[in-house]
């Protein structure tokens, strides 16, 4: 269970948001909404523990995430704005390196299967610099295919994807929620995610 | 826990292999700087021998400086650093891995070519051996201290110049003992004392610097 209490964010002199709070239980999906610059990405980074909130608290299973540290990170999968893809490595190497460094190494067969799911079969040995924007995004998202951590935090996951990939990703997120996972995400696209409980939080309203 | 260090080293070495130009440019910079002095000073062997330890070490410091800004910049810009910071390990271990990888691609080659450069300065054989060994055990300290500077200046405009101003003063002890060891060797004395101090700097640097750099990276990521 993820609890956010009374979060506040200041950027220089400007207050991006204050008094933001929500509770997300297992199997629930939270859509963060708001215009550009409302602080959606900042809030997601706060939830990961990358940016400390100016006020308020974030708790995972009742404990402050700062106190949990690495134990919280072991429960979390964050996909940011940037793809975190190394242009000089191939999609396969990228996927293996990122899962290794995240602490859940993936076998090569699983990694190949994941790349096939995202439609990169036949491209797994091509350096990522030669891939299109959408293909790079797919390479980054391939991590989700075998991801079993309970909390997913996704920043604009649908950007640059074609309809086929959007459908795949919605399915993967739906399956994750069905397993009892939690997801927090932002998106400007209208996507249909098969989820029992979808909640919405509007920033800067 | 230590597996994460080897994974980071493996990943960074692979990336360096895909882009050999980065490694070579640092090495050639070192070779050029150290070769300009004999050409400029002229063929006075006595004078060159006096200059050699300092010149070669300064060249090594500058060459290391040249490669520092790249240490975290790419990971920072493509988002990989966020992922490393969110891995369920202490970030210090990740930085230790990156520091060792940096040494393997920028410090180790310097140690391998340093004796060849020493030949241009007419160094005696025992001084050449001392030079190679001193550069070998001194450069990890340069990578470690440099990691702190690289982390502190990450994402800043004009960070490269600021990085030199921050890091070069901290390199002075390495320069003093590194050049001292070679000097002692040229004078026929035992360089062990200098080498021990150099090794102490390296051990201290590798033990503490990654944690300081990790703290700086967390601030840069906020």
Summarize it:
The complex is a heterodimer of chains A (205) and B (222). Chain A is α/β, with parallel strands linked by helices.
Helix and strand content put the structural class of chain B at: mainly alpha
Strand order of the largest sheet of chain A: 6-7-8-3-9
DSSP helix fraction of chain A = 25-40%
Largest interface: A-B, 29 and 24 residues
Distance between the termini of chain B: 25 Å
What share of residues are in beta strands of chain A? 25-35%
Tally of domains of chain B: 1
**Helix proportion of chain B:** over 70%
Overall number of strands of chain A: 9
Radius of gyration of chain A: 17 Å
- Protein structure class of chain A: alpha/beta
Give the CA-based shape of chain A. globular
Number of helices of chain B: 10
Query: What portion of residues of chain B belong to β-strands?
Result: under 5%
Main sheet properties of chain A: 5 strands, parallel
Low-confidence stretches of chain A: none
Note the run of SSEs of chain B as H and E: HHHHHHHHHH
What is the 3D form of chain B? elongated
Total beta-strand segments of chain B: 0
Summed over residues and divided by their number, the pLDDT of chain B gives a mean of: 93
Could you explain the architecture of this structure?
The complex is a heterodimer of chains A (205) and B (222). Chain A contains seven helices and nine strands; from the N terminus they run βββαββααβαααβαββ. With 205 residues, chain A is of the alpha/beta class. In chain A, the strands form two sheets. A five-stranded parallel β-sheet of chain A has the order 6-7-8-3-9, sandwiched between helices. A four-stranded antiparallel β-sheet of chain A has the order 2-1-4-5. In chain A, a hairpin with a 2-residue loop joins strand 1 and strand 2. The longest helix of chain A is centred in the last third of the chain and has 16 residues, at 163-178. Chain A is globular. Chain B is mostly helical and 222 residues long. Helices cover 86% and strands 0% of the residues of chain B. In chain B, helix 1 (2-18) packs across helix 6, helix 6 crosses helix 10 and helix 7 packs antiparallel against helix 9 (172-186). The longest helix of chain B has 30 residues, at 91-120. Chain B is elongated. The mean pLDDT of chain B is 93. Chain A binds chain B through residues 48-52, 70-71, 73-74, 76, 78, 80-89, 93, 97-98, 100-103, 127, and chain B through 4, 7-8, 11, 14-15, 18-19, 77-80, 82-90, 94, 221-222.
């Amino acid at each position: 269970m993820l609890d956010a209490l009374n979060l506040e964010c200041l950027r220089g002199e400007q207050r991006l948001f204050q008094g933001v709070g929500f509770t997300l239980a297992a199997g629930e999906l939270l859509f963060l909404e708001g215009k550009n610059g409302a602080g959606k990405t900042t809030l997601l980074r706060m939830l990961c523990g990358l940016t400390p909130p100016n006020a308020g608290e974030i708790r995972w299973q009742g404990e402050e995430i700062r106190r949990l540290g690495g134990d919280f990170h072991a429960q979390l999968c964050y996909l940011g704005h940037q793809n975190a893809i190394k242009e000089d490595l191939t999609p396969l190497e990228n996927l293996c390196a990122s899962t290794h460094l995240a602490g859940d190494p993936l076998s090569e067969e699983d990694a190949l299967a994941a790349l096939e799911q995202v439609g990169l079969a036949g491209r797994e040995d091509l350096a990522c610099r030669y891939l299109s924007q959408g293909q790079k995004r797919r390479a980054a998202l391939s991590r989700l295919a075998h991801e079993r951590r309970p909390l997913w935090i996704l920043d604009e996951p649908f950007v640059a994807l074609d309809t086929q990939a959007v459908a795949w990703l919605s399915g993967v997120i739906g399956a994750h929620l069905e397993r009892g996972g939690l997801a927090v995400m932002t998106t400007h696209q209208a996507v249909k995610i098969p989820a029992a409980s979808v909640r919405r939080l509007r920033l800067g309203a | 826990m230590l597996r994460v260090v080897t994974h980071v080293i493996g990943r960074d070495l692979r990336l360096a292999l895909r882009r050999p130009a980065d490694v070579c440019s640092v090495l050639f910079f070192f070779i050029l700087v150290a070769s300009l002095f004999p050409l400029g000073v002229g063929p006075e062997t006595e004078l060159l021998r006096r200059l050699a330890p300092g010149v070669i070490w300064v060249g090594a410091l500058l060459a290391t400086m040249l490669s520092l800004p790249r240490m975290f910049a790419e990971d920072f810009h493509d988002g990989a650093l966020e992922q490393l910071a969110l891995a369920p390990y202490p970030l210090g271990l990740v930085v230790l891995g990156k520091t060792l990888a940096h040494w393997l691609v920028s410090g180790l080659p310097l140690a391998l070519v340093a004796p060849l450069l020493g030949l241009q300065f007419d160094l005696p054989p025992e001084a050449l051996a001392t030079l190679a060994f001193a550069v070998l055990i001194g450069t990890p300290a340069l990578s470690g201290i440099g990691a702190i500077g690289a982390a502190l200046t990450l994402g800043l405009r004009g960070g490269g110049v600021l990085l030199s101003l921050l890091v070069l003063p901290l390199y002075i002890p390495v320069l003093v003992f590194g050049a001292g060891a070679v000097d002692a060797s040229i004078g026929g004395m035992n360089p062990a004392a200098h080498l021990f101090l150099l090794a102490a700097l390296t051990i201290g640097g590798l033990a503490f610097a990654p944690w300081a750099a990790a703290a700086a990276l967390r601030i840069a990521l906020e």
